[in-house]
Design goal:
mainly alpha, two-stranded antiparallel sheet
Length: about 100
């Protein structure tokens, strides 16, 4: 008899497996969780590095899909005082929107 060891999945691995969200799904998910689009735009505008700020603005305004592991997601989440787990929960709920 062999013993199978099941290790808990690493949260980063789980996040990598999450499907991308469309811009519509992401925005509706934010609104459904009481996060205004204006607060996201303010978080982007608060990025101190001008080049990083412009890149974030392009990503926010023009991306048609968003990956859970994209750096902008965690950066904006941190600016909005969201934990990675809260973002995961919102992400999962937004898939069906």
């Amino acid at each position: 008899m062999s013993i199978i060891t099941i290790r808990p999945r690493d949260p980063h691995e789980v996040r990598q497996g999450m499907p991308p969200l469309t811009a519509r799904q992401l925005r509706l998910g934010l609104i459904a969780n009481g996060i205004t689009l204006a607060s996201v735009e303010a978080a982007v505008a608060a990025i101190t590095n001008p080049t990083a700020r412009e890149i974030a603005q392009v990503e926010w305004e023009y991306a048609t899909t968003f990956e859970r592991t994209h750096s902008l997601i965690s950066q904006i989440g941190t600016a909005l005082n969201l934990t990675p787990e809260e973002i995961d929960t919102m992400w999962s709920a937004s898939i069906s929107l």
